[in-house]
Design a protein that fits this description.
CATH class of the largest domain: Mainly Alpha
Number of strands: 10
Number of domains: 2
Low-confidence stretches: 1-22, 375-405, 641-650
Shape: elongated
Number of helices: 22
């Protein structure tokens, strides 16, 4: 078992033992078999084919003996003809069985790859946002690709080879004993020469295998970071193409070097085995030759023995290192299980409430939140990142620990929003406004305190019903590299064309889309880069309108947009906020003036808040206090110039 690393969500980190002694636990084997169990009938068929092919491979040497001792020396033409037919027929039958074996192996292997990838993908989809902000995507992709394929090979290649070698050795030794027991003992006497180098090289190859996987993961991380749109744009803007080429060349060279090292170690190993086999064969033929001269047995027997020796030494050397070889192949399974064993931080209770008729009441009760702690009440998050100086065998899934500027992102935050109200979040940069908007849809769980919707603790609600009730428009709009229609339907897969167009009209984007050559079938490009910032935001608003949530969360940042796009977005937002509970990170004075509730945050705390009344608006109440809000108003919002202050409830 790995050491106790704390009670956080990353509590299962695999590591190599002190002397890198491969250990295969019963738990690991049971888990591996759990993925192979659906294919147990095919595995059985695979084993039958192994026995059949191995049995057929033992027949030709006996045919050689019969050919020399009987057909040729006795001049038996009919026997010669039948032996020739047998020498042709056996390989044909073996090839046919081998075809079936390959089909079964491929079916099991590809099915296993799909099952493992599905399990990994499903597990990551259940992870909280914390997992994705702390994990390098390239390293995770390496687990989904390289390690999954390696795990498949463990069953469909390594496992088959071990079984085949065992069957071959037992059957070959049995036949050799029946032919000549003295030569058989002489053949087996050199087996100890295989053991020492085989075990030593096997351990070395296991280390190389794990290091190769880690180096591949690091290379994938760099590719993922620089080949996506954002990374490519950053590289070009700063003119760092040459630096990135050199950095990638170093990582690519490391992968190539470890591949060469693996090939060279393997080549020296097999060359040594070949020399030992040659020595064993020479000794057997030397001793057998003297026995033939003395008339102990026939020439055909020594020829058959020579053929069986080639089928004995290879499998014997593999069997002597089977434990190490199998443990090496299990490295990929271990790395896959490392991800699957990460506990899901945010999960539904067994009796989770499926809320249907949502009114939109929101309450934060003494909420404290720390990005570096899990949602279980303060367990520490273990953040690891591969250091190039660290042994690759000690490394694990690359996790980057984020260090916030202060210990708590939110501290003792309490407020209430009544159904249908507009709440404006105001404060300097880094005050905790975005964190509040992330906690309400339960992207994270609070470290302490609780958040309620319609009087229910969010942790008591099913995540599906919570997601259905809340719509969110972030400052950075993400679109899939697909058509506009597909991106819009992500919110409501069964929405009609009329509903899509109505949502886009409300979001002031329909006329733009209708003017495109392909209309709603226009492909937006990676992350929507074929659209402007304002166009993407209006698409995001239309997408939320299609979802029709009862609670709306949005970041109103429009400072980077032109005045026309900003006006169109503001009109769309005013429409969508009608009759909905809205929580807005406010950047415009008009939104703040319209707000029923104003929450002023600073350093993770609510330092001021006001609820509008019949006589005094929330804005006026906070101005009268002459605190942080008044300061922000005079230095930031007031400078925005004259704006429409028409109510969002018109």
């Amino acid at each position: 078992m790995p050491p106790d690393l704390g009670s956080g969500w990353w509590t299962y980190i695999k590591y190599d033992q002190k002397h890198d002694r491969p250990k295969i636990s019963a738990t690991l084997l049971r888990r591996v078999w759990g993925y192979a169990r659906p294919y147990q009938l095919k595995v059985l068929g695979l084993l039958v084919s192994i026995f059949a092919i191995t049995g057929l491979s033992l027949i030709p040497p006996l045919l050689y003996r019969d050919l020399i001792d009987n057909a040729i020396l006795k001049g038996d033409t009919a026997r010669l003809n039948w032996l020739a037919v047998g020498m042709i027929g056996i390989p044909l039958v073996s090839a046919a069985i081998g075809f079936g074996q390959r089909y079964l192996s491929a079916t099991i292997g590809e099915g296993l790859i799909a099952d493992l990838r599905n399990a990994l993908f499903n597990h990551t989809q259940r992870m909280s946002l914390r997992f994705f902000t702390h994990t390098e995507t390239g390293a995770l992709m390496s687990r989904l690709n390289n390690d999954v394929v390696g795990a498949q090979r463990a069953l469909t290649s390594t496992f088959i080879n071990i079984i085949t070698n065992l069957v071959t050795v037992v059957a070959t030794v049995t036949i050799m004993l029946s032919l000549e027991w003295r030569l058989t003992l002489l053949s087996i006497a050199i087996v100890p020469l295989f053991l020492a180098p085989t075990r030593r090289v096997g351990r070395k190859l296991r280390k190389i295998r794990r290091k190769s996987l880690e180096l591949n993961a690091r290379m994938n991380v760099r590719m993922q970071e620089t080949l996506n749109i954002d990374g490519a744009l950053l590289v070009k803007l700063f003119g760092r193409q040459s630096d990135e080429n050199q950095r990638f060349r170093r990582r690519s060279a490391a992968v190539a070097d470890i591949g060469v090292r693996s090939a060279v170690v393997g080549r020296w190993f097999f060359m040594g085995l070949g020399l030992i086999s040659a020595v064993g064969t020479a000794v057997v033929f030397w001793a057998g030759g003297h026995m033939i001269l003395r008339g102990v047995f026939t020439v055909g027997t020594i020829v058959a023995f020579g053929a069986y020796l080639t089928q004995l030494y290879g499998p014997l050397s593999a069997i002597s290192n089977a434990h190490v070889e199998f443990a090496t192949s299990m490295v990929s399974f271990e790395r896959v299980f490392e991800v699957l064993d990460i506990p899901v931080e945010i999960r539904d209770k067994s009796d989770a409430i499926k809320l249907s008729d949502v009114t939109g009441a929101v309450n934060f009760h003494d909420v404290t939140f720390n990005y570096t702690a899990g949602g279980d009440g303060g367990s520490a998050l273990l953040g690891l990142q591969i250091d190039p100086r660290t042994r690759a065998s000690d490394a694990t899934l690359s996790i980057t620990a984020q260090k916030p500027s202060r210990q708590l992102a939110l501290e003792s935050v309490s407020f209430a929003i009544r159904p249908g109200e507009l709440a404006a979040l105001v404060g300097p940069s880094g005050a905790g406004k975005t964190t509040v908007t992330y906690l309400l849809p339960r992207l994270y769980d609070p470290t302490s305190g609780k958040i309620c919707m319609d009087g229910h603790d969010l942790r008591d609600l099913s995540q599906v019903s919570l997601a259905r009730s809340i719509g969110m428009v972030t400052q950075e709009t993400y679109l899939f590299n697909d058509t506009l229609k597909a991106n819009l339907l992500y919110a409501a897969p069964n929405a009609s064309r009329a509903a899509i167009e109505a949502a886009c009209q409300t979001a002031n984007i329909h006329d733009f889309i209708a003017g495109l050559p392909d209309g709603y079938d226009t492909v937006v490009g990676a992350r929507g880069y074929r659209l402007s910032g304002g166009e993407k935001q209006r698409i995001a608003i239309a997408r939320v309108i299609l979802k029709d949530p009862r609670i709306l969360i949005l970041d109103e940042a429009t400072s980077s947009l032109d005045s026309q796009s900003e006006a169109l977005i503001q009109q769309a937002l005013q429409r969508i906020m009608r009759n909905r509970t809205s929580l807005v990170i406010a950047h415009r004075l008009s939104t703040i003036l319209d707000a029923d509730v104003i929450l002023v945050l600073d350093q993770g705390r609510i330092v001021e808040q006001a609820h509008g009344g019949d006589t005094h608006s929330a804005h006026d109440q906070l101005l009268d206090k002459d605190g942080l809000y008044a300061q922000l108003y005079h230095t930031q919002f007031r400078k925005a110039g004259p704006e429409s202050t028409s109510s969002h409830r018109q």
